[in-house]
Amino acid sequence: MSAAITSSTATTDQRPGAEVVLRALKDQGVEVIFGYPGGAVLPIYDALFQQNAIRHILVRHEQAAVHAAEGYARSTGKVGVVLVTSGPGATNAVTGLVDALMDSIPVVCLTGQVPTHLIGNDAFQEADTTGITRPATKHNYLVKRSDDLAKTVHEAFYVARSGRPGPVVIDLPKDILIKPAPYVAAPTTEHRSYRPVTAPDPARIQEAVRLLKRSERPVIYTGGGVINAGPEASRLLAEFVHLTGMPCTNTLMGLGAFPASDPQFLGMLGMHGTYEANLAMHGCDVMLNVGARFDDRITGRLDAFSPNSKKIHADIDPSSINKNVEVQVPIIGDARQVLAALIECWKQDPTPVAKTEQLAWWKLIDEWREKKCLAYVQEGSIIKPQHAVRRLYELTRETGRDTFISTEVGQHQMWAAQYFGFEKPNRWMTSGGLGTMGYGLPAAMGVQIAHPDALCIDIAGEASILMNIQEMGTLAQYRLPVKVFILNNEYMGMVRQWQELLHGSRYSESYSEALPDFVKLADAFHAKGLRATSADQLDDVIKEMLAHPGPVIADICVAKDENCFPMIPSGAAHNEMIMGPDQEQNARSVTDEGKVLV
Amino acid sequence: MSDNMTRTATIAVLVENEAGILARVVGLFSGRGYNIESLTVAAVDEEKRLSRITVVTTGTDMVIEQIKAQLDRLVPVHRVSDLSQEGPHLVRELALIKVIGKGDHRVEALRLADAFRARVVDATTESFVFEMTGAGEKIDAFCTLMRPLGLAEISRTGAVAIARGTSHIAA
């Protein structure tokens, strides 16, 4: 009798593959997916039509679906989910997948595939998706057996969010989506081979604490790993920084992990980081890196990077340790657990703190701060882009609303990082590793879906925004009140800046010729278009943008030739920073060895 | 740690026996610009669905540590073991070597094969196929000697390796 029940349950449990996929998504806590239909995924779209648990957001381009999922993931800490069709649907998603891979963003991307019996036949809309996305993802799967379907979806979520997060592709042949498949719940046992270490080695923690306590010139440098470890990790970071009294700097990806307004914050470090942050990195004797990867934007010239310091590096990914920079104390673990362990150990370890020396270190840092490396002069009617971001920040703060900022890539991105202060984690979405123009608008869309009442602003450039401008249609369809704040200097500004400084002012193809009228463009996409052409209009335009209940494009016409400073020219060291226009000749002396670097 | 001294590493990688795993490993090496001197793969445990990859590579200590860490973070990888660092180990390779010739050359080839403990596994009146097992250098040396004697074709497996003694790698 019981055998009969079991077997009959097993048969009734067999549902079409597409339904099994949706059930697995639902059991993984998925509420929203970003996607675009096509032939190979029609069965999933049919199943979506017949349920209400999962909401589908129809984007206008598959790349945007992935960026939207990234924005969703980064602002919530959940896994972002994408659904695209085979062939061009999958290949269009590749840029977004690599973006998520470089910035360690958890995304699960379902791609349609031609039926299993046609794979390899050059069928219509066939592409070798697992082959193409192998180096573009943390891991990928091709489901060839219905029995593996539910299990694979569960495993994909586990892989996407565990260890160092990243994008995972599940390639789904159409016959697998149609044929009945059994449903299995998410496994409660450990994964067979992928079990990342999250708890740090206590001996290493103690070694780190002793080094830090004896340090005369310490600095704490943290990255996206702290954000990825959840808001508790950011809280622990603040606790540790306050406990130790040490200066703290964040990478581009790590902004918001430590409050920008805190007196112990040195600002962002790296190529366009602050004078005080970079000199502190250069001059420190002990460096604690939590969840950052010594990327080339941070280190500048490697052989001159922080030459006299002992380095402690805590990272969830062992392959990030000793990759670019040799460190003396490697700690493998999750940033939250590492910070909790550091706090605990700091409180118990009897090693005396080198207080007098650290006070002298702070005095030196304060002298560097006096340089006011981010100072600019707004005079006359031409809007300085720095001023536009600063006013946007101040006026946004006055609204008291929870604010999320995304950016495209280029000068405006660096100005946003420099002049917009972030007090909390998960409020800042930017394409750091891959540097993907066109990231910001779809990312803001994903954020707005996750936080319907929040203020979501894409700080953009006039060139980048055109790379995914079609998503204005998505904003209109779902009434997403995203604000697109364009710093329009009619140039691909960062390209122009490098051409000016490193290529003899030969502005090869960097002028944004034949731009659209962004106000009319907004109108065509059912959004509000605003424009500021002089400094006296800026505040009114920002206020009107913030007050408008729907989507807005604000075209802020800014100074065309402004450069982004401070800047560590390629191939230079942290202490060879260019502070402003009067030092631009320093960049002109960059060697060919420096020029080959991007 | 010496920055510029390169060394050769023989790395054993125990992986899930699944489609695409070899492509993942090879793609990792090509994508990150690591050297592959030799790479072998075969299923070693059908029941547990395990394959073993042996890869011989060269690089500085920092690069080899990177290679190991990068391999270890691939999802289907169970274990990464640097045999060349972890103690005494055996490295063997199998080669099939075809030598075509007549007269004295034939006699000399056969005499040398005997000295190298290469077995004749195919013969015609004008050719031999020798099979030999050993370290890569031994096979290299044999092939060099065969060259003037009518060496026509070489097929080699690449290195397989295992630790000596009781230490062993398991999933």
From TrEMBL, chain A:
Pathway connected to this protein: Amino-acid biosynthesis; L-valine biosynthesis; L-valine from pyruvate: step 1/4; Amino-acid biosynthesis; L-isoleucine biosynthesis; L-isoleucine from 2-oxobutanoate: step 1/4
Domain Thiamine pyrophosphate enzyme N-terminal TPP-binding: 17-130
E.C. number: 2.2.1.6
Transferase recorded as keyword: yes
Keywords: Amino-acid biosynthesis, Branched-chain amino acid biosynthesis, Magnesium, Metal-binding, Thiamine pyrophosphate, Transferase
Pfam families, per database record: TPP_enzyme_C (PF02775), TPP_enzyme_M (PF00205), TPP_enzyme_N (PF02776)
Domain Thiamine pyrophosphate enzyme TPP-binding residues, every copy: 409-555
Record's catalysed reaction(s): 2 pyruvate + H(+) = (2S)-2-acetolactate + CO2
Membrane-spanning residues: none
InterPro entries xref list: Acetolactate_synth_lsu, AHAS_TPP, DHS-like_NAD/FAD-binding_dom, THDP-binding, Thiamin_PyroP_enz_cen_dom, Thiamin_PyroP_enz_TPP-bd_dom, TPP_enz, TPP_enzyme_TPP-bd
GO MF term list: acetolactate synthase activity
Cofactor note: Binds 1 thiamine pyrophosphate per subunit.
Domain Thiamine pyrophosphate enzyme central: 205-342
Gene3D superfamilies named among the record's database cross-references: 3.40.50.970, TPP-binding domain
Cofactor(s) in the UniProt record: thiamine diphosphate; Mg(2+)
CDD domains documented for this protein: TPP_AHAS, TPP_PYR_POX_like
Superkingdom, taxonomy of origin: Bacteria
The family this protein is said to belong to: Belongs to the TPP enzyme family.
NCBIfam families the record matches: acolac_lg, PRK09107.1
Protein's UniProt name: Acetolactate synthase
TrEMBL record, chain B:
Residues of the ACT domain: 10-85
GO molecular function: acetolactate synthase activity
InterPro entries: Acetalactate_synth_ssu, Acetolactate_synth/TF_NikR_C, Acetolactate_synth_ssu_C, ACT-like_dom_sf, ACT_dom, AHAS_ACT, AHAS_small-like_ACT
Pathway: Amino-acid biosynthesis; L-valine biosynthesis; L-valine from pyruvate: step 1/4; Amino-acid biosynthesis; L-isoleucine biosynthesis; L-isoleucine from 2-oxobutanoate: step 1/4
Catalytic reactions of this protein: 2 pyruvate + H(+) = (2S)-2-acetolactate + CO2
Gene3D superfamilies assigned to the protein according to its UniProt record, in alphabetical order: 3.30.70.260, ACT-like. Chain A, domain 2
The enzyme's E.C. designation: 2.2.1.6
Entry keywords, A to Z: Amino-acid biosynthesis, Branched-chain amino acid biosynthesis, Transferase
PANTHER family to which the protein is assigned, alphabetical: ACETOLACTATE SYNTHASE SMALL SUBUNIT (PTHR30239), ACETOLACTATE SYNTHASE SMALL SUBUNIT 1, CHLOROPLASTIC (PTHR30239:SF0)
Functional description taken from the UniProt entry: Catalyzes the conversion of 2 pyruvate molecules into acetolactate in the first common step of the biosynthetic pathway of the branched-amino acids such as leucine, isoleucine, and valine.
Family to which this protein belongs: Belongs to the acetolactate synthase small subunit family.
Subunit structure as annotated in this protein's UniProt entry: Dimer of large and small chains.
Protein's name in the database: Acetolactate synthase small subunit
